[in-house]
Protein backbone atom coordinates (compact mmCIF):
# COMPACT_ATOMS: atom_id res chain seq x y z
CA UNK A 1 0.00 0.00 0.00
CA UNK A 2 2.78 2.46 0.84
CA UNK A 3 4.46 1.63 -2.45
CA UNK A 4 1.23 2.46 -4.28
CA UNK A 5 0.85 5.71 -2.37
CA UNK A 6 4.42 6.69 -3.26
CA UNK A 7 3.85 6.05 -6.97
CA UNK A 8 0.60 8.02 -7.09
CA UNK A 9 2.04 10.81 -4.98
CA UNK A 10 5.07 11.17 -7.25
CA UNK A 11 2.91 11.28 -10.38
CA UNK A 12 0.53 13.80 -8.84
CA UNK A 13 3.30 16.08 -7.62
CA UNK A 14 5.07 16.00 -10.97
CA UNK A 15 1.89 16.83 -12.87
CA UNK A 16 0.90 19.64 -10.54
CA UNK A 17 4.38 21.18 -10.61
CA UNK A 18 4.53 21.11 -14.42
CA UNK A 19 1.03 22.56 -14.79
CA UNK A 20 1.71 25.55 -12.54
CA UNK A 21 5.31 26.29 -13.46
CA UNK A 22 4.38 28.70 -16.24
CA UNK A 23 1.20 30.17 -14.71
CA UNK A 24 2.70 32.23 -11.90
CA UNK A 25 1.07 30.12 -9.17
CA UNK A 26 2.92 28.83 -6.17
CA UNK A 27 3.81 25.20 -7.01
CA UNK A 28 3.57 24.21 -3.34
CA UNK A 29 -0.07 25.32 -3.25
CA UNK A 30 -0.80 23.27 -6.35
CA UNK A 31 0.90 20.24 -4.81
CA UNK A 32 -1.19 20.71 -1.67
CA UNK A 33 -4.37 20.89 -3.76
CA UNK A 34 -3.48 17.55 -5.35
CA UNK A 35 -2.08 15.82 -2.28
CA UNK A 36 -4.98 16.52 0.09
CA UNK A 37 -7.68 14.91 -2.14
CA UNK A 38 -5.36 11.97 -2.79
CA UNK A 39 -4.84 11.32 0.91
CA UNK A 40 -8.54 11.79 1.55
CA UNK A 41 -9.30 9.17 -1.10
CA UNK A 42 -6.98 6.63 0.51
CA UNK A 43 -8.42 7.42 3.94
CA UNK A 44 -11.98 6.91 2.70
CA UNK A 45 -10.92 3.66 1.02
CA UNK A 46 -9.41 2.40 4.29
CA UNK A 47 -12.59 3.27 6.21
CA UNK A 48 -14.66 1.59 3.49
CA UNK A 49 -12.53 -1.55 3.85
CA UNK A 50 -12.90 -1.61 7.64
CA UNK A 51 -16.63 -1.13 7.38
CA UNK A 52 -16.83 -3.95 4.85
CA UNK A 53 -14.90 -6.33 7.09
CA UNK A 54 -17.04 -5.46 10.09
CA UNK A 55 -20.29 -6.02 8.19
CA UNK A 56 -19.19 -9.14 6.28
CA UNK A 57 -18.00 -11.16 9.26
CA UNK A 58 -21.31 -11.33 11.09
CA UNK A 59 -24.61 -12.95 10.02
CA UNK A 60 -26.96 -12.84 8.26
CA UNK A 61 -25.07 -13.85 5.13
CA UNK A 62 -26.41 -13.19 1.65
CA UNK A 63 -25.65 -16.64 0.20
CA UNK A 64 -28.09 -16.37 -2.70
CA UNK A 65 -26.69 -13.05 -3.87
CA UNK A 66 -23.14 -14.38 -3.45
CA UNK A 67 -23.90 -17.34 -5.73
CA UNK A 68 -25.45 -15.01 -8.30
CA UNK A 69 -22.39 -12.79 -8.26
CA UNK A 70 -20.09 -15.81 -8.61
CA UNK A 71 -22.00 -16.78 -11.74
CA UNK A 72 -21.90 -13.23 -13.10
CA UNK A 73 -18.21 -12.69 -12.37
CA UNK A 74 -16.93 -16.22 -12.96
CA UNK A 75 -19.00 -18.01 -15.58
CA UNK A 76 -19.71 -14.96 -17.72
CA UNK A 77 -16.04 -13.95 -17.75
CA UNK A 78 -14.91 -17.43 -18.75
CA UNK A 79 -14.92 -17.01 -22.59
CA UNK A 80 -12.97 -13.74 -22.47
CA UNK A 81 -10.41 -15.09 -19.99
CA UNK A 82 -9.96 -18.29 -22.02
CA UNK A 83 -9.43 -16.27 -25.21
CA UNK A 84 -6.89 -13.98 -23.53
CA UNK A 85 -5.02 -16.92 -22.01
CA UNK A 86 -4.87 -18.73 -25.34
CA UNK A 87 -3.58 -15.61 -27.08
CA UNK A 88 -0.83 -15.22 -24.49
CA UNK A 89 0.23 -18.85 -25.03
CA UNK A 90 0.48 -18.35 -28.79
CA UNK A 91 2.43 -15.10 -28.44
CA UNK A 92 4.89 -16.62 -25.96
CA UNK A 93 5.48 -19.61 -28.19
CA UNK A 94 6.03 -17.54 -31.33
CA UNK A 95 8.14 -14.81 -29.75
CA UNK A 96 10.46 -17.02 -27.74
CA UNK A 97 11.10 -19.62 -30.44
CA UNK A 98 13.36 -17.39 -32.53
CA UNK A 99 15.39 -16.28 -29.52
CA UNK A 100 15.86 -19.84 -28.25
CA UNK A 101 16.77 -21.14 -31.71
CA UNK A 102 19.57 -18.57 -31.92
CA UNK A 103 21.15 -19.91 -28.72
CA UNK A 104 20.46 -23.57 -29.42
CA UNK A 105 18.04 -23.90 -26.53
CA UNK A 106 14.87 -24.86 -28.40
CA UNK A 107 14.38 -27.89 -26.17
CA UNK A 108 13.76 -25.57 -23.20
CA UNK A 109 10.87 -23.79 -24.91
CA UNK A 110 8.06 -25.94 -23.39
CA UNK A 111 9.36 -25.32 -19.87
CA UNK A 112 9.68 -21.59 -20.53
CA UNK A 113 6.14 -21.37 -21.87
CA UNK A 114 4.69 -23.29 -18.93
CA UNK A 115 6.63 -21.37 -16.28
CA UNK A 116 5.87 -17.99 -17.87
CA UNK A 117 2.15 -18.68 -18.00
CA UNK A 118 1.79 -20.30 -14.60
CA UNK A 119 3.91 -17.89 -12.60
CA UNK A 120 3.22 -14.50 -14.18
CA UNK A 121 1.40 -14.14 -17.51
CA UNK A 122 -1.71 -16.10 -16.57
CA UNK A 123 -2.46 -14.34 -13.25
CA UNK A 124 -1.72 -10.83 -14.51
CA UNK A 125 -3.67 -11.17 -17.76
CA UNK A 126 -6.62 -12.66 -15.89
CA UNK A 127 -6.55 -9.83 -13.37
CA UNK A 128 -6.46 -7.16 -16.07
CA UNK A 129 -9.19 -8.78 -18.15
CA UNK A 130 -11.49 -9.18 -15.15
CA UNK A 131 -10.76 -5.65 -13.96
CA UNK A 132 -11.84 -4.36 -17.37
CA UNK A 133 -15.02 -6.39 -17.60
CA UNK A 134 -16.12 -6.81 -13.97
CA UNK A 135 -14.71 -3.57 -12.58
CA UNK A 136 -16.64 -1.46 -15.08
CA UNK A 137 -19.81 -3.47 -14.50
CA UNK A 138 -19.68 -3.19 -10.71
CA UNK A 139 -18.80 0.50 -10.79
CA UNK A 140 -21.60 1.31 -13.23
CA UNK A 141 -24.18 -0.86 -11.45
CA UNK A 142 -23.54 0.47 -7.94
CA UNK A 143 -23.05 4.00 -9.25
CA UNK A 144 -26.45 3.87 -10.97
CA UNK A 145 -28.06 2.55 -7.79
CA UNK A 146 -26.44 5.34 -5.78
CA UNK A 147 -27.48 8.25 -8.01
CA UNK A 148 -31.01 6.84 -8.39
CA UNK A 149 -31.26 6.56 -4.57
CA UNK A 150 -31.88 2.81 -4.69
CA UNK A 151 -29.20 2.27 -2.05
CA UNK A 152 -30.92 4.82 0.20
CA UNK A 153 -34.18 2.93 -0.31
CA UNK A 154 -32.46 -0.32 0.70
CA UNK A 155 -31.22 1.30 3.91
CA UNK A 156 -34.70 2.62 4.62
CA UNK A 157 -36.03 -0.94 4.17
CA UNK A 158 -33.55 -2.28 6.78
CA UNK A 159 -31.42 -4.01 4.12
CA UNK A 160 -27.70 -3.53 4.68
CA UNK A 161 -26.18 -2.50 1.32
CA UNK A 162 -22.70 -3.43 2.52
CA UNK A 163 -23.79 -7.01 3.11
CA UNK A 164 -26.02 -7.36 0.05
CA UNK A 165 -24.13 -5.30 -2.54
CA UNK A 166 -20.51 -4.86 -1.47
CA UNK A 167 -19.53 -7.97 0.50
CA UNK A 168 -21.02 -10.38 -2.04
CA UNK A 169 -19.23 -8.77 -4.97
CA UNK A 170 -15.86 -8.51 -3.22
CA UNK A 171 -15.99 -12.14 -2.04
CA UNK A 172 -17.12 -13.33 -5.47
CA UNK A 173 -14.22 -11.52 -7.14
CA UNK A 174 -11.69 -12.94 -4.66
CA UNK A 175 -13.08 -16.46 -5.02
CA UNK A 176 -13.51 -16.56 -8.81
CA UNK A 177 -10.14 -15.08 -9.84
CA UNK A 178 -8.12 -18.21 -8.90
CA UNK A 179 -10.52 -20.42 -10.87
CA UNK A 180 -10.43 -18.12 -13.87
CA UNK A 181 -6.64 -18.09 -13.66
CA UNK A 182 -6.58 -21.89 -13.88
CA UNK A 183 -8.68 -21.67 -17.04
CA UNK A 184 -6.37 -19.04 -18.51
CA UNK A 185 -3.33 -21.19 -17.66
CA UNK A 186 -4.87 -24.25 -19.28
CA UNK A 187 -5.79 -22.37 -22.47
CA UNK A 188 -2.38 -20.70 -22.58
CA UNK A 189 -0.47 -23.98 -22.29
CA UNK A 190 -2.72 -25.71 -24.82
CA UNK A 191 -2.45 -22.91 -27.39
CA UNK A 192 1.28 -22.65 -26.73
CA UNK A 193 1.60 -26.33 -27.65
CA UNK A 194 -0.46 -25.83 -30.81
CA UNK A 195 1.72 -22.90 -31.91
CA UNK A 196 4.83 -24.91 -31.03
CA UNK A 197 3.78 -28.01 -32.93
CA UNK A 198 2.93 -26.05 -36.08
CA UNK A 199 6.63 -25.22 -36.46
CA UNK A 200 8.04 -28.43 -34.97
CA UNK A 201 5.51 -31.26 -34.63
CA UNK A 202 5.59 -32.84 -31.16
CA UNK A 203 3.01 -34.76 -29.21
CA UNK A 204 1.03 -33.09 -26.45
CA UNK A 205 2.37 -35.59 -23.92
CA UNK A 206 5.98 -34.81 -24.85
CA UNK A 207 5.28 -31.07 -24.57
CA UNK A 208 3.64 -31.44 -21.17
CA UNK A 209 6.31 -33.79 -19.83
CA UNK A 210 9.05 -31.33 -20.76
CA UNK A 211 7.09 -28.31 -19.60
CA UNK A 212 6.00 -29.65 -16.20
CA UNK A 213 9.00 -31.77 -15.27
CA UNK A 214 10.41 -29.07 -12.97
CA UNK A 215 7.06 -27.66 -11.79
CA UNK A 216 6.19 -28.46 -8.16
CA UNK A 217 2.85 -28.14 -6.45
CA UNK A 218 4.25 -25.23 -4.43
CA UNK A 219 4.55 -23.28 -7.68
CA UNK A 220 0.76 -23.18 -7.95
CA UNK A 221 -0.07 -22.02 -4.44
CA UNK A 222 1.58 -18.55 -4.50
CA UNK A 223 -0.01 -17.68 -7.85
CA UNK A 224 -3.45 -18.74 -6.68
CA UNK A 225 -3.03 -16.62 -3.56
CA UNK A 226 -1.86 -13.73 -5.73
CA UNK A 227 -4.92 -13.92 -7.98
CA UNK A 228 -7.20 -14.00 -4.93
CA UNK A 229 -5.58 -10.72 -3.83
CA UNK A 230 -6.12 -9.33 -7.34
CA UNK A 231 -9.80 -10.25 -7.14
CA UNK A 232 -10.15 -8.63 -3.74
CA UNK A 233 -8.55 -5.43 -5.03
CA UNK A 234 -10.80 -5.33 -8.10
CA UNK A 235 -13.97 -5.88 -6.09
CA UNK A 236 -13.01 -3.43 -3.34
CA UNK A 237 -12.01 -0.57 -5.65
CA UNK A 238 -14.98 -1.05 -8.01
CA UNK A 239 -17.49 -1.16 -5.15
CA UNK A 240 -15.87 1.85 -3.49
CA UNK A 241 -16.01 3.94 -6.65
CA UNK A 242 -19.57 2.89 -7.38
CA UNK A 243 -20.85 3.57 -3.85
CA UNK A 244 -19.45 7.11 -3.83
CA UNK A 245 -20.75 8.08 -7.29
CA UNK A 246 -22.52 11.44 -7.61
CA UNK A 247 -23.80 13.63 -10.40
CA UNK A 248 -26.37 11.58 -12.30
CA UNK A 249 -25.49 9.65 -15.43
CA UNK A 250 -22.22 11.53 -15.82
CA UNK A 251 -21.20 10.39 -12.35
CA UNK A 252 -22.04 6.79 -13.25
CA UNK A 253 -19.73 7.02 -16.25
CA UNK A 254 -16.96 8.45 -14.10
CA UNK A 255 -17.45 5.68 -11.55
CA UNK A 256 -17.21 2.97 -14.21
CA UNK A 257 -14.13 4.52 -15.83
CA UNK A 258 -12.31 5.13 -12.56
CA UNK A 259 -13.11 1.58 -11.40
CA UNK A 260 -11.37 0.09 -14.44
CA UNK A 261 -8.40 2.46 -14.35
CA UNK A 262 -7.71 2.24 -10.63
CA UNK A 263 -8.30 -1.50 -10.28
CA UNK A 264 -5.99 -2.22 -13.23
CA UNK A 265 -3.33 0.09 -11.78
CA UNK A 266 -3.54 -1.49 -8.34
CA UNK A 267 -3.41 -5.00 -9.83
CA UNK A 268 -0.14 -4.16 -11.56
CA UNK A 269 1.35 -2.51 -8.48
CA UNK A 270 0.18 -5.36 -6.24
CA UNK A 271 1.81 -7.82 -8.62
CA UNK A 272 5.17 -6.06 -8.14
CA UNK A 273 4.85 -6.28 -4.36
CA UNK A 274 3.54 -9.87 -4.32
CA UNK A 275 6.24 -11.15 -6.69
CA UNK A 276 8.88 -9.83 -4.32
CA UNK A 277 7.06 -11.32 -1.35
CA UNK A 278 6.74 -14.72 -3.06
CA UNK A 279 10.46 -14.75 -3.87
CA UNK A 280 11.24 -14.12 -0.21
CA UNK A 281 8.84 -16.81 1.06
CA UNK A 282 9.49 -19.40 -1.67
CA UNK A 283 13.16 -18.97 -2.65
Write a concise keyword list for the protein shown above:
283 residues, mainly alpha, 2 domains, 10 helices, 84% helix, disordered N terminus
Describe, in plain words, how this protein is organized in 3D.
With 283 residues, this protein is mainly α. The protein has 2 domains: 1-58; 61-281, no CATH class. The chain is built from 10 helices and no strands. The protein has helices at residues 2-21, 27-56, 63-73, 78-102, 109-147, 150-156, 161-199, 204-212, 220-243, 248-281. α1 runs antiparallel to α2, α3 (63-73) runs parallel beside α7 (161-199) and α5 packs antiparallel against α7. It is elongated. The two termini are 23 Å apart.
List the helices and strands and how they pair.
Blueprint lengths: L1 H20 L5 H30 L6 H11 L4 H25 L6 H39 L2 H7 L4 H39 L4 H9 L7 H24 L4 H34 L2
Helix pairs in contact: 1-2, 2-7, 3-7, 4-5, 4-7, 5-7, 5-8, 5-9, 5-10, 7-9, 9-10
Total beta strands? 0
Strand percent estimate: under 5%
Sheet bearing the most strands, described? Answer: none
Shape: elongated
Q: SS-based structural class?
A: mainly alpha
Low-pLDDT runs: 1-5
What share of the residues lie within helices? Answer: over 70%
Overall mean pLDDT score?
Answer: 81
Radius of gyration: 22 Å
Distance between the termini: 23 Å
Number of helices: 10
- Helix and strand string, N-terminal first? HHHHHHHHHH
Quaternary state of this entry equals: single chain
Amino acid sequence: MWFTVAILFGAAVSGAWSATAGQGRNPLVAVRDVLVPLLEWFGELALFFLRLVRRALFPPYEIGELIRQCDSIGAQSLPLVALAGGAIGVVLSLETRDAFDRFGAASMLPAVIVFSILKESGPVITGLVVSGRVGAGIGAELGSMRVNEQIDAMEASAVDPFKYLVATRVLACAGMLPLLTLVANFCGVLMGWIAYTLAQPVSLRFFLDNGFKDVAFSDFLPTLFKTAVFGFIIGLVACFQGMRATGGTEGVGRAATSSVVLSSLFVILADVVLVRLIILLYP
